[in-house]
Amino acid sequence: MAPVTYLEAIRQGIWEEMERDPSVFCIGEDIGVYGGAFKITEGFIHHFGKERVVDTPISEAAIVSAAYGASLTGMRPVAEFQFMDFISSAHTQIVNACAKSNWRWGAPAPMVMRGPSGGGVSGGPFHSQNPEMWYAHTPGLKVICPATATDAKGLIKSAIRDNNPCLFFEHKYLYRRVKEELPEGDYTVEIGKARTHREGKDISIITYAAMVYVAQEAADILAKEGIDLEIIDLRTVAPLDVDAIVNTVKKTNKVIVLHEDVKTGGIAGEIAAIINENCFDDLDGPIVRITALDTPVPFSPPLEKVFLPKVEDVVREARKLKAY
Amino acid sequence: MKSKTEQKPAAKNNQASNGPANSGQKNGSGSAPAQTKGKFTQVAPQRKNPHGIPDYRLEVPNFQTVEEWADGKLRYNVKGDFSAPAPSLCESKYLSKEKSIEMYRFMLLNRKMEQALENLFKQQKVIGGVYLGLGQEGCSVGAAFALKKEDWVGPMIRNQGAMLVRGFTPADTMMQYMAKAGAPTKGRDSGSHYGDVHIHNVVAPISHLGDSIPVMAGIAMGARLQGKNIACLTFVGDGGQSTGPSYEGFNFAAVQRLGVILIMEHNLWAYSTPVELQFACKDLADRSIGYGVPGVIVDGTDPNQVYDVTYEAAQRAYKGEGSTLIEAKMMRMRGHAMHDAASYVPKEYFDYWKRRDCNTRMEKYLLDRGWLTEKDNKDLIADVEAQINRDRDIADASPFPQPEDATTGVFLDNSVKIPFKYGPPKVKEVQKGVRVGEASNVSHYK
Asked: For the domain that residue B383 is a member of, what is the CATH number?
């Protein structure tokens, strides 16, 4: 099979689930005739009809709530945010209505809320954010952040089949930059299981989404210096794969947590605490956090470059950590 | 100032422009038409408001709350005429004698359950506050009573009556307020924050106001995908209708022609804030023009009016004709919750609306028609009181939840099969495996 993009993999995943299961339908802004701002659902409306590809008013709160309501009747809606930044307009609907539904009154909400997140494209403060931690902090939600096309397809399928509200953060920088040959047939990837992106013995980099590729570039540079990085791609930030985190720390004894989200309240702090609680004695050096700056995402390229974590940051910090 | 048309009996065929014909009429067998007694007015819009919205009320009170400085303090006072005597109820176009008595029983049950809750609160058996719907029973019950079993209701905090109509028991609400293990949420959430997707078709509200409106739209959409047009009734207060989700939700329902029936309970006070500080228009039903859906105004203290317009709205929903906005005008007769003595409410309001108490007027309506004798009524009240006593004992006897219950159920296991509410979706036949080509390379950001 010819390699396909990360974006195409998500398209395929949703398409196949809609063919497989009549309870699946899409709802969002400009997803019908136009096919979505990034063309994830291009052609869907002609194939599946407008009843299953619902163009909505610009109303994120209504989109999420309507998806939630439909899920109460046993449907499996896939709601699109044109940009994940707009998720804040549906915040209470997600964290209060959907997330607490099964726990509070035994009403399952099998629904997916997906859309493009992340920076590196000069999208500015409202088209570049990584809002995943607002939701990882809320019990009752699953938060998925795939890095590869294979995972993106397998995880979107798992999210659609999941009985709980799932947030699916696609990385817009990866949409058309990542291209892979996908596994044949109908496959899924389990939610909550991390993936070893690169085996190594000296230092573990725990990361996810677009930063997996930053870690990869750094690993290639450091390999020439004899520093062997292990890269763990979390794939989901809620639930976290605690076993995978502990196992890699036990293996390399040194760890860098790398993410594109801002530092304060990012998943790195949580992972550091998990390491402290589970395998403090295995550490041979301090836990290092490499993250975006604690500022809004800037628009102008030179500013955004300063904001985002870079390959040279990883290389520098890894060299320091190796010396411990 | 009284309206000129206040006492004028309605012509029998003077129906709302958006109402159905008399096809649904089910007047009680053997009962004389009310008109012959010359006492009752059939539900029909007596007038339209300045924006052309049908107004079913028999009277249009003309008063308002004004702010006034006195002794260096700002307080609320009233302007207008509060002297009018209460009108009788309208005669329902659709309710039979038997149905009317059943509806009245629910109103009694609602009121007596809330009185029992108040006592439980005073006995410190309630955890937290109690939110009463005193004076609004006719609206909660009348609206929910107009629906079919397969329809849905999204109640708000003062719609306990609607939950009783949907089949929950007084014990359910009492146990909710008492944080007991036997409560529908097993002590996880409080008060009227409960629901059921399996039998009762009730959405558990969240505290955030207006948020049930888009959820009801989604339920109607889910049902429609499964081949069924249903009615989804929800309520929002004059305060709650100011929120963003209220607008987003009802606009979405209107655009999608979903069978959402939105009752705006215009009960004059949003916690301590008078409606004059909530919105600048006089009638909330005016909003229906902007949404592009039919709107009506009813007397929220007249269960027959509420029943009839909700019934008509439900018929529209079943036919796939879309949403309806109903404004029910009434008064919140207690504070926001039990702790709130509502001292900010001018006394004139309580006096005026107490005369319009829905339960008292429903009782009088049934007695005057001869549908209930004094003895029937006494027996009915005794029967309701006995039920309340039994339910209170059930609630009292229910244990508190086990501490370990707190952690279960955050997620639902994926081995559980979630059933379709109305059967498998009716979807367009698609040719499987025929995928359109790759997405075109048009992107908002590269």
From this structure: 3.40.50.970
